[in-house]
Design goal:
single chain, 674 residues, Beta-galactosidase, Chain A, domain 5, Immunoglobulin-like, 3 domains, 31% strand
Length: 674
């Protein structure tokens, strides 16, 4: 591995001598530029921080546009990344840009691509594609980059391979072809581009990542990726730069005794404290109190109550001011102060890319009607996108969000996005005029990244988080660059449903994005006031983010002993959850409950592990057998059962058998090398 990293470092050091063959191309005024060798080099500079060296190369394209290559190298992993920027620094329009494309070639026989599909429709279904049989093509122009498809790939070729990723929260395409000698990978963002730049405008490519590895077989490459992702790609916890560690959340909105369609629409000044006090008294104090959708006043001044679609959280967004009926005076700040005094932080839901009741926003809140872009939802009802790509709209929106966060000292910003905006972007391009295809997406995605950066600086400033929640109707915004600012509190909206769904996602998604969460209840649908929670559900929910949805006061059937046991058990294993990850059973679709599910997390340089075993609801087998792949043959280790406390001595390379008395049961075991 050291030799592999050294060769990658040499390539980075010599990049200046190989700019003509750099694996990036673009089309300008009908001419295709491959690499940067034909462009006058204006300036170079270099910086280093947090294990990454970064070089900047500035080129002159035609006296109008400056091209900047930002090239990064992760010194401990041999991973290289790049982004290319095009800025019109003149007083006149530029020529037309098309096809910002990364192109990489790989030598090696038997090329295969491993990966997973995205959320919605596919629910992170894994795939393996043999490129010797057919090319592989992905295309996503919905406006949410990780719904349905997923821009992370593992290309195996010859003895080794490479992890490849696209960091862009908008549209993208990726193609893999094999000509019998070499494999070609092409990735383009946005998926459609044909635009000139007005004076002062900038467009950019996606963040492209190349992460080569030397050994094709086994789990080594996947775990090397996890280690890099955790150490290098994840955001920090706070302004001090502390690493992000596992945490828990508590959702109080189901415990109000009032009608609740979803979110925190039923929460009010009189509901939070009894629930929080009961939670604390029962030993279930979470790290964050989760305050979700529905807390704001509607643009017309009414109070959303969920009694109809027009009065629900979805159709009343846009003011980002607390509903004074539910939260009079400083009552919400009192709740966040009380949480802090008891060792808890607060996270709060926003959806800045959508507005409602536009006429009322204009009349009551100084909104410009030109910022709202109409769209019809699948039911034929009108909804409005909020054009944060317009600088004035951006300022109006972000300032309101920051004001609410700061005044109430909310530590974590939670964001949602309930619009597939791709078609709308294309319509807005047409409003821009001829030769402007792709410009709307460019403005909106770059504005969104800037918005997150600004909001995180805000929450950091008073001791809050340096990260946010990346939700976009579930898992729609988990691209590589977004994951440098956000984490998925829930991998999917459907992570709130069945345990089979949860286990299915864990055995696929967690290989790629290690820091994520699920709910601790099994619900018939995404929204269920009660649902089922027991040891089986809890163990399937043990992820770096543990989300507890409990009716502390309004569920007479609740068994606090079960909840406490689950919470304490998660605390006992949370240190393992960012370790190396091994899946011991074939992937199963969410509805396939006929077999075992087993996986392990390994820490301490392979010396300690926690093993999860699940006999699913329709599994007829009673005995699960396997050999731990992370224990070398002949080495001694202990195996301790978390339920019985029984500890036995075993040797690596030998098969172990585990008996289950009934379906829908689980085992949690600790392994430790002697």
């Amino acid at each position: 591995m050291e030799e592999y990293v050294r060769r990658a470092a040499d390539a980075f050091d010599n990049a200046e001598n190989n700019l003509g063959s750099f694996p990036f191309s673009f089309v300008y005024e009908g001419k295709k530029y491959r690499g940067f060798g034909g462009l006058p080099l204006l300036e170079t500079r270099e910086e280093a921080a947090d294990g990454r060296r970064t070089k900047y190369f500035d080129f002159d394209l035609d006296g109008i546009v400056r091209v900047t290559l930002k090239l990064g190298f992760w010194t401990g992993f041999g991973a290289t990344e790049w982004t290319v920027f095009f800025e019109n620094r003149s007083g006149t329009d530029s020529g037309v840009f098309e096809s910002l494309c990364t192109r990489l070639e790989f030598e090696g026989a038997l090329p295969m691509v491993d990966g997973i599909m995205g959320d919605h429709d596919n629910f992170y279904r894994p795939y393996t594609h043999d490129l010797t049989r057919a090319p592989l093509h992905f295309y996503n122009d919905s406006g949410r980059a990780t719904h349905v498809t997923f821009p992370y790939f593992d290309l195996k070729a010859g003895r080794g391979g490479a992890m490849l990723a696209i960091g862009w929260a908008g549209s993208w395409r990726a193609d893999f072809t094999f000509d019998g000698q070499k494999t070609v990978y092409e990735a383009e963002t946005p998926a459609r581009l044909h635009t000139f730049l007005k004076p002062g405008e900038t467009i950019r490519s996606a963040l492209s990542l190349l992460f080569p590895y030397p050994e094709r077989e086994g789990n080594a490459a996947a775990n090397l990726w996890r280690r890099w992702f955790i150490r290098c790609n994840m955001p920090k916890a706070n302004a001090a730069g502390d690493p992000l560690r596992p945490f828990s959340t508590a959702f109080l909105a189901y415990d109000t005794g009032r009608h609740n369609t979803d979110g925190s629409i039923s929460e009010a000044y009189d509901s939070w404290k009894p629930s929080m006090d009961k939670m604390i008294a029962e030993g279930l104090k979470a790290d964050f109190r989760w305050f979700d959708a529905g807390w704001y006043a509607a643009p017309d001044g009414t109070s959303p109550d969920g009694s109809s679609w027009e009065k629900d959280w979805y159709a009343t967004v846009g003011t980002w001011e607390l509903d004074p009926k539910k939260w009079p005076g400083d009552s919400f700040r009192q709740s966040t102060d009380y949480a802090r005094a008891n060792g808890m932080k607060t996270l709060m839901w926003f959806e800045p890319e959508r507005v409602s009741m536009v006429d009322a926003l204009v009349k009551n809140h100084g909104y410009d009607p030109g910022w709202a872009k109409i769209q019809k939802d699948p039911g034929g009802r009108h909804r409005y996108a909020n054009n944060i790509g317009d600088p004035a709209c951006y300022r109006w929106t972000v300032d309101r969000i920051k004001k609410t966060l700061r005044e109430n000292r909310v530590e974590m910003y939670r964001e949602d996005n309930n619009i597939d905006a791709g078609a709308q972007w294309r319509g807005m391009d047409a409003e821009e005029g001829e030769n402007r295809e792709g410009i709307t997406e460019m403005k909106l995605i770059t504005a969104h990244y800037a918005m997150w950066d600004e909001i995180l600086r805000c929450t950091e400033s008073y001791g809050g988080c340096s990260f946010c929640d990346s939700c976009a109707s579930g898992g729609g915004r988990n691209d590589l660059e977004s994951m440098r600012r956000g984490v998925p509190l829930l991998r999917s909206d459907f992570d709130r449903t069945t345990t089979g769904m949860r286990l299915s996602m864990t055995t696929s998604f967690n290989r790629w994005i290690p820091f994520c969460g699920a709910n601790t209840r099994e619900q018939a649908g995404q929204v269920d006031m009660k649902g089922r929670t027991d040891q089986y559900v809890w163990r399937a929910s043990y992820l770096p983010i543990l989300n507890m949805s409990v009716q502390y006061l309004h569920d007479e059937t609740i068994d606090f002993d079960v909840l406490r046991a689950g919470f304490e058990e998660w605390k006992s294993i949370r240190e393992y959850l960012l370790g190396d990850f091994y899946v011991h059973t074939p992937w199963r679709a969410p509805a396939d409950l006929s077999g075992f599910v087993a996986y392990s997390y390994v820490i301490g340089d392979g010396k300690r592990a926690v093993l999860f075993l699940f006999r699913q609801e329709r599994c007829d087998e009673e005995v699960f057998r396997f050999t731990p792949p992370y224990i070398p043959a002949g080495e001694s280790y202990t195996l301790r059962d978390a339920d019985t406390g029984e500890t036995v001595l075993r040797r690596g390379g030998e098969e172990i058998s585990f008996s289950f008395s009934a379906p829908r049961t689980s085992k949690l075991l600790f392994l430790e090398k002697k």
